[in-house]
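Reopening this one. Same input as before:
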Amino acid sequence: MSLAITIELSDDDLKYFADAMHSAQKESQNLAPKEITDAASKLLQDGKDNKLPAFIADRLSKIQSMVSMVNDTGFGMDDADKKRVLACLTYFANPKDIIPDNVPVLGFLDDAIMIELVVRELQHEVEAYDDFVVYREDEARRRGVDPSTLNTERVEWAEARRVELLSRMKSRRMSSYSSSSGWRPSLFKFGG
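Same output, byte for byte:
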């Protein structure tokens, strides 16, 4: 038997998470990108080690795409987009999150909620990256190339698809910010 629970976050609740994100960003401002992605990867590993409930583990697994897209030089995000993703990952690099991770089961609940917010903020980036990875893997297999070797270099045959997906990502992001959905990119601000 499964049970569906819906959590509705009010504007005050969203402000609470936004404040936690801004605090984490301030405390993490001197971290190198690798330190941020390593901390997010550690959170993933800690989640696996702690045998979390599925509803939390499912959300933690979404961090992997964000970490991968930052580190994937074959995808090659521009600096502004990379900073945007890193800004979203800083919460997971801060050991002082809302609920300490060492609290059994509940310690990762705030991370799961923040991941939902981050995924919403980065929806277009994650979609573009996931599409690129599928394309690159399919095309590499078709060409007889090991796909696992391609995340450290750009290949000519994937370049047009990469450029197309990055352009689509930016266009969709700007469109979603100006739509009537009410969602605005206010949760994760980052410096230049």
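So the earlier flakiness isn't reproducible anymore. For the record, The first helix runs from residue 11 to 27.
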